[in-house]
Amino acid sequence: MQKKLIALAVAGLASGIASAQTNVTMYGVLDLAYAYSSGNAGRNGLGIKIPGTNTFSGITGVGAGNRLGFKGEEALGNGLKAVFTLEYGLDPDLNCGIGTCGLNARQQFVGLASNYGTVALGRQYAPGFNATANNDALDASDFGIQSSLSAINGMTITPNSPARFNNAITYTSPDLSGFKASAIYSFGETRDASGGYNDKQVSTTDNGKYGLGLNYANGPINFDAVWQSRTNVVVPTAAPPYQLAGTGKSINEWYVGGSYDFKIVKAFASYQALDNNNNVRRYGGIDSSDLWTVGLTAPIGRGTLGLSYGRLTTDRNYASDGVSWGAGTQYTYPLSKRTSLYAAYSYFSNNNNVLLPGQAIAIPGIVGATGESNYALGTGITHSF
């Protein structure tokens, strides 16, 4: 009898635990493509032109970043619930998975959600990530114009990894008649170059980041406004003074973008700017820059055709302005709700004052250079689950 009572008690306890378990969903994206790229490699130190680069290869994450993720929630009562997301990058082309080939987590956070909004802790998207993805006619793919130009310029308002902040706390408001606000703060906690802390020289607030975003989505209209800042920017060193002199000021960015769906076509536009308050003449970098894009999408058959153009101007107080511009097109054809084929083309050009290593097309590698142009053409398949 005693054994039966114990067994019943254990079964009841297990049942109670099972009913309180988190509702977990596994999801992911697999994207593989083949692309051909060609570009001029510029000139060497003697002014002699370097032969161009032509590459044909298999690549991954062109139309969408490859990932494997887990997300879930648990009801805690009175409208409160716990939420979490664990999402990791993959590279099927190189047989790289979680923890290999230098792949990092895309997102890792846990938080609480209610009717008043969501507060979360961990590695998360800054407002600029979703804003730029919302307003890109080429779906923020690797062929995307805004994606490439913002990445080469070192902007954090981009649909790329710089818009994911580590060690961050976020707040996301509920939807209020189409309006949604978001905020993020990332604690810098900068270590010196040897991997340790020196409280007298390296502040735990160095290289902190914050961002504010506002989105309005209602019917055919989408609008985003974003402000992001990197505060007290320093470069850590292994020996005293543990950080480079002349650094330690902010890099500020802002962005406005939107789209309007006319049914026949959907129009996109964005403008963003960066202002670096650090001594860039001594340590390199960009004083300020601005980037604008325009684009259109239109239904063609069962698929969608997108067109985009963008122009990046980089300003240095001690040099002439560098100008890079790009144009591209992409056609996406859905085979089902989860599987689609795509083909895309992008072209970039740099003037002779571009002082960066060169505007690089992200697919499949660096083929751009100062005063030169390059292009890429590719096709692939995306499957989400």
From TrEMBL:
Pfam families, per the entry: Porin_4
Cleaved signal peptide residues: 1-20
Domain Porin as annotated: residue spans: 7-353
UniProt membrane topology term: Multi-pass membrane protein
Quaternary structure annotation from Swiss-Prot or TrEMBL: Homotrimer.
Taxonomic source organism: Candidatus Accumulibacter contiguus
Record keywords, A-Z: Cell outer membrane, Ion transport, Membrane, Porin, Signal, Transmembrane, Transmembrane beta strand, Transport
Protein name: Porin
Subcellular location: Cell outer membrane
InterPro entries, A to Z: Gram-neg_bact_OMP, Gram_neg_porin_domain, Porin_dom_sf, Porin_Gram-ve, Porin_Neis
